[in-house]
Amino acid sequence: MSLRTLRTPDDLITAGLAPPEAHAALTAVAARYATAIPAGIADLIDLPDDPIGRQFIPDPAELTPAPHETNDPIGDDALSPLKGIVHRYPDRALLKPTLACPVYCRFCFRREHVGPDGGVLSEAELDAAIGWIASHPDIAEVILTGGDPLILSARRIDDILTRLGAIRHVRRLRIHTRVPVAAPERITGELVAALDTETPLFLVLHSNHAREFTPAAATALARLRYGGVPLLGQSVLLRGVNDSETALRDLFETMIAHRVKPYYLHQLDPAPGTARFHVPVAEGRALIAQLRGTLSGTAIPAYIQDASTGKTVLA
Q1: Cα distance between residue 214 and residue 217, in whole Å
Q2: Residue 3: its pLDDT value, please?
Q3: Is 230 helix (H, G, I), strand (E, B) or coil?
């Protein structure tokens, strides 16, 4: 069992997740994209290309972009009026207080920006971002994303949520995170207390395979539930990870078993070097069609595609 987060080619080779002859290729990938595989995730990987390993172990293919791929596939940069804010919809805004994550997904659409050097917004930058939200009365919902907001301290999260909750026109809050499955030890009583807000708040869990729901993840999710935090689930349709009726059924049933409502199944965003994960839309629609009528409607998310102009419902 690994006792620490794997971050370097040497770490991956020592853990048996990459062969020694891959060192040079992995070093080239590491020069551009961050790697972090927490101990609990590493212990789930049986083979480097299994549904867990495929999501998190770097691959030389990441340095070969396809013609249709772009550094900013859903237009975050063009829609950012100031650092830490993305404004795509009239009534919603993203707030990105950090660009660091507990685990780095090899298919991430923000992979050009996230990483341990992404840091957090400075006090002045956070003040400016929250001030921007306060000065835009059409913003009814603020979505904390990143990076992963829940790698911040409970005190920091409490401060951000309190300040957002004090803005009269902000009526809903949302947090998108992988922490409950990737770093469940961070879901402490102090953090759950910070999420107990007067303003309605939803936590959206990112997970892509049923095996991510370990006993430790189950404990973290139960702690959130008992703290009264509503839980939604978000996934990405990924080749070699969940691109079968059985894998999706198991994922959505497992979410429901942990009281997580499947919310969105995303079509892969075309970030550079992610083509090996691509599943054609027609295939995704067929998978959703196979689930309808044989799986409870409560367990079937909306299959959607993101773009700079907004979301398109595919099925």
Answers
A1: 5
A2: 67
A3: coil
Residue 279 has pLDDT above 60, yes or no: yes
Between the alpha carbon of residue 15 and those of residues 19, 33, 105, 198, 239, the distances in Å are 10, 20, 18, 45, 25
Q: State how beta strands 302-307 and 310-313 pair.
A: antiparallel
Q: Which residue has the higher pLDDT, 117 or 57?
A: 57
Give the pLDDT of residue 1.
47
- Backbone φ, ψ for residue 39 (5° rounding): -55, -45
Spatial CA neighbour of 48 closest among 33, 64, 60, 32: 60
Helices (H), the chain: 9-14, 23-30, 39-42, 53-56, 123-134, 154-165, 179-182, 189-194, 215-226, 245-257, 281-291
CA distances from 5 to 8, 64, 143, 172 (A): 10, 26, 27, 34
Strands 85-89 and 92-95: antiparallel
What the block records as the tokens of 302 is 């909306």
- C-alpha torsion sign, points 244, 272, 6, 155: negative
Nearest Cα neighbor of 261 from 285, 230, 237, 288 is: 230
Give, as one character, the DSSP assignment of residue 156.
H
pLDDT digit string (tens) for 258-274? 999 999 999 999 999 99
Mean pLDDT score across all residues of the chain? 96
Looking at beta carbons, which pairs linking 116-122 to residues 24 or more positions away fall under 8 Å?
116/7, 116/34, 116/36, 117/34, 118/146, 118/147, 120/152, 120/156, 121/83, 121/84, 121/96, 121/97
Share of the chain above pLDDT 70, in %: 99
Q: Which residue matches tokens 């429901």?
A: 256
Joined together, the tokens standing for residue 307 give 């773009």
Contact, 126 vs 160, CB < 8 A? yes
> Residue 310: enclosing H or E segment and its boundaries?
strand 310-313
Task: Return all residues near 155 (Cβ < 8 A) that are at least 6 apart.
Answer: 194
Q: Which pTM does this prediction carry?
A: 0.96
